[in-house]
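Hello everyone,

My group is preparing for a crystallization screen and wants a predicted model to guide construct design. The compound we'll soak is zinc ion. Before spending weeks at the bench, it would help to have a computed complex in hand. I've included the protein sequence and the ligand's SMILES below. Output in structure-token form would be ideal because that's what our pipeline reads.
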Amino acid sequence: MTLYESSGGNKMSKLESLYRDVLSELGEDVSREGLLDTPARAAKAMQFLTSGYETNLEDIVNNAVFTSDNDEMVVVEGIEFYSQCEHHMLPFLGRCHIGYLPNGKVLGLSKFARIVDMFGRRLQIQENMTKQIAEAVEEVTGCRGVGVIVEAKHMCMMMRGVQKQNSMMRTSVMKGAFRENQATREEFMRLVGL
Ligand SMILES: Nc1nc2c(ncn2[C@@H]2O[C@H](COP(=O)(O)OP(=O)(O)OP(=O)(O)O)[C@@H](O)[C@H]2O)c(=O)[nH]1
Ligand SMILES: [Zn+2]
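Reply:
Good plan to model first. Here are the tokens for the complex, ready for your pipeline.
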């Protein structure tokens, strides 16, 4: 991380320095008490919220793929997530449901949530995030099919712009048997209550 000299002689990151400029441009007095640590806090928060760029599938899965002869559908529903839209850098948040048909291997339960977080903690559009989650599950399990449904509310639709408070976006990606076989897709939808 590039470090800069602040007026108080402390080292600060480039991101922190940029947040100070943002606050100044917004007309704030960056020397007032309540804002003294804000650039550093905002930089830290944004780094966490985009930390998904620094993780990769192999590391988060950590070999937690187990042999199993259970070839029935597995569903993990209601995985909450927070992401940010790449257009406004405002949050969108909601729930993700994942179903797959194992093909001799099952994935450690927590890893579904880790996969969702990895793609959520990036600048995203919901459609792409949904597809990336489906492709990741397919890649690590070699499953016969996968379905992912994401339901989310977008702050850029609520706090600004059209200011619609009650709309929700639902996206889905179906691959393999979930795409080709209507009964499989319907079983998934029924299990997640849709
Ligand atoms: N499809 C999709 N659109 C998104 C997502 N997040 C934000 N958007 C949309 O991205 C679009 C950007 O449109 P622009 O016209 O370039 O930007 P804008 O003037 O700020 O648009 P408004 O939100 O309509 O005020 C808007 O329609 C947003 O609602 C997403 O995850 N998926
Ligand atoms: Zn947006």
